């Protein structure tokens, strides 16, 4: 008798697991249930549909060869049954059955299974404030909501919009509405930075500056307290600090895993409701698999259970489950947390832990950043890249890397190179310093930026230089009347002279000049050095050290980093 497999959930992991199983074991009877009409869509593409980059919503539900992935497609091309508008309401593990309700007719029916796959996804956090039920207040996870938002924008009725939440989807939505439709957009984030938990403070300031430079208002450390409206539609968002006019609101404040079905069946779930699985993607019942946004997965950096809802990970897990449904022994080791997001001029990408996250996890961590061109300096087409490496001080173990660049492909290549090493090893700073990456002038410098940031981290860990962030440098400069710092500009003399002419406390001592004029630097005052990217500043620091001047800090990334965070002297 053919094995019966039931799959609950039809967005990413569910169809992937079902298709993989049918390829390996075509005699399997697979039935997939989903409570929506549209299935197997690229949810991560929704903001780009809202922004007009994707013309038709059905493109998100289609194959690369433009065939719509509907129930008929899966029946005719993949060999399994899909039941849409059908909600699985209960699992009877003893009888090995599920109960499903047709949402159109209300009819309930019981279906037997040999193996069960839970791909129930996650639910966006709903706004719990007065006025949340007003019209034009959306969460941006379903295609139906995306279509409604797009129609509102096309109708030109939306002049101002508010995005609540400064995570991936929230910022992508803000960019989409401001860039394509010219809408006045405000982002409200209750944490003290955008992209909290994935970007360091400095890089988050770069992201916020990119948004503000394109007329997107960013309000951090701010909480929405209510929404007001007229005629049943939202007109204003009220925070604990201000009132913002809005004809449309998108709530994007995170997700909650849909683990209720599993919990009610007696399966193990975490305190936040995520389903616990082993490396084979089996739940506490070996005949029930689960994966995707409804699951808790091991973080390979911390060794702890974590939660990271990403479509890419759901697809990889779906293949593992499909293989095991067909009798295989595939495993999913866990995640290191590799991500990417494109804003306006800048893209951001990262893997692993930020310095702040690492310290919260108990690591004695340091973050060291550099600014370097992504290609050979003599090649005509090139972009300046910010790259930050996070390492544990004592062991020199690499814990993460994040970056910012106007060329998203260049940045992604560097992050992915380190991500691959992090996933299958415990690399040290020295390993990344010697990491072999491809080289030709149109692609990289001979000493690639990924090697350079490891070299800079080595210099910090070995005590060869003391570094501060660009925002810390600006704070020192702002309070120069009280802190006695001696500020050195090691850029070419002309650049430093221009600033010194306006600010007498600014000392233009180029790298060339400091070789002979080092004695102009007082030995009894702390020194702060800045240059253009950090390279000349380090050499200037070494010159001073040779002459016994060692109370010196260098601003990481130089003036390039200062400008990227929106700072000025």
From TrEMBL:
Keywords: FAD, Flavoprotein, Oxidoreductase, Redox-active center. Residues 481-564 form the Rhodanese domain. GO terms for molecular function: oxidoreductase activity. Its cofactor is FAD. It holds the Pfam family Pyr_redox_dim. The keyword Oxidoreductase applies. InterPro entries: FAD-bd_OxRdtase, FAD/NAD-bd_sf, FAD/NAD-binding_dom, FAD/NAD-linked_Rdtase_dimer_sf, Pyr_nucl-diS_OxRdtase_dimer, Rhodanese-like_dom, Rhodanese-like_dom_sf. This is FAD-dependent oxidoreductase. SUPFAM superfamilies: FAD/NAD(P)-binding domain, FAD/NAD-linked reductases, dimerisation (C-terminal) domain, Rhodanese/Cell cycle control phosphatase. Gene3D superfamilies: FAD/NAD(P)-binding domain (3.50.50.60), Rhodanese-like domain (3.40.250.10). The keyword NADP does not apply. Belongs to the class-III pyridine nucleotide-disulfide oxidoreductase family.
């Amino acid at each position: 008798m053919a094995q019966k497999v039931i799959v609950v959930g039809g967005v990413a992991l569910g169809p992937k697991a079902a298709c993989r199983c049918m390829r390996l074991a075509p005699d399997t009877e697979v039935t997939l249930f989903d409570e929506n009409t549209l299935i197997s869509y690229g949810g991560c593409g929704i903001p780009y549909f809202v922004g007009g980059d994707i013309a038709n919503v059905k493109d998100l539900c289609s194959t690369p060869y433009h065939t719509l992935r509907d129930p008929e497609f899966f029946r005719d091309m993949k060999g399994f049954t899909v039941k849409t508008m059908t909600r699985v309401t209960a699992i009877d593990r003893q009888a090995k059955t599920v109960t499903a309700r047709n949402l159109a007719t209300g009819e309930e029916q019981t279906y037997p299974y040999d193996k069960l796959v839970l791909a129930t996804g996650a639910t966006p956090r709903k706004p719990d404030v007065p006025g949340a039920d007003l019209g034009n207040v959306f969460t941006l996870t379903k295609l139906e909501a995306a279509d409604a938002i797009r129609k509102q924008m096309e109708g030109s009725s939306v002049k101002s919009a508010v995005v609540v939440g400064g995570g991936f989807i929230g910022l992508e939505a803000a960019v989409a509405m401001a860039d394509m439709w010219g809408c006045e957009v405000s982002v409200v984030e209750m944490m003290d930075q955008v992209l909290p938990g994935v970007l360091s403070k400095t890089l988050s300031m770069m992201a916020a500056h990119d948004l503000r430079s394109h007329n997107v208002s960013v309000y951090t450390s701010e909480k929405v307290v209510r929404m007001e409206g007229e005629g049943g539609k939202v007109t204003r968002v009220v925070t604990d600090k201000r009132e913002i006019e809005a004809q449309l609101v998108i709530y994007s404040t995170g997700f909650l895993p849909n683990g209720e079905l599993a919990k009610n069946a007696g399966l193990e779930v975490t305190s936040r409701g995520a389903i616990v699985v082993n490396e084979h993607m089996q739940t506490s019942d070996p005949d029930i698999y689960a994966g995707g946004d409804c699951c808790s997965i091991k973080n390979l950096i911390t060794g702890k259970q974590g939660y990271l809802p990403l479509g890419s990970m759901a697809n990889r897990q779906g293949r593992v489950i499909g293989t095991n449904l067909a009798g295989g022994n595939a495993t999913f080791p866990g995640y290191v947390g590799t991500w990417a997001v494109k804003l306006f001029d800048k893209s951001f990408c990262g893997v692993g832990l930020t310095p702040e996250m690492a310290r919260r996890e108990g690591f004695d961590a340091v973050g060291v950043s550099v600014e370097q061109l992504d290609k050979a300096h003599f090649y005509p087409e090139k972009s300046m890249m910010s790259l930050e490496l996070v390492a544990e001080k004592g062991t020199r173990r690499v814990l993460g890397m994040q970056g910012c660049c106007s060329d998203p492909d260049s940045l992604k290549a560097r992050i992915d190179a380190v991500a691959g090493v992090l996933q299958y090893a415990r690399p040290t700073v020295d390993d990344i310093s010697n990491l072999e990456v491809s080289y030709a002038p149109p692609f990289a410098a001979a000493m690639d930026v990924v090697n350079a940031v490891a070299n800079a981290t080595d210099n910090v860990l070995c005590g060869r230089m003391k570094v501060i962030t660009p925002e810390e440098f600006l704070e020192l400069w702002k309070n120069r009347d009280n802190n006695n710092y001696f500020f050195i500009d090691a850029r070419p003399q002309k650049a430093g002279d221009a600033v010194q002419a306006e600010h007498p406390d600014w000392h233009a001592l180029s790298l060339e000049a400091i070789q002979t004029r080092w004695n102009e630097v007082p030995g009894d005052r702390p020194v702060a050095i800045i240059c253009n990217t950090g390279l000349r500043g380090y050499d200037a620091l070494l010159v001073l050290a040779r002459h016994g001047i060692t109370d010196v800090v260098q601003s990481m990334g130089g003036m390039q980093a200062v400008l990227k965070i929106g700072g000025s002297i």
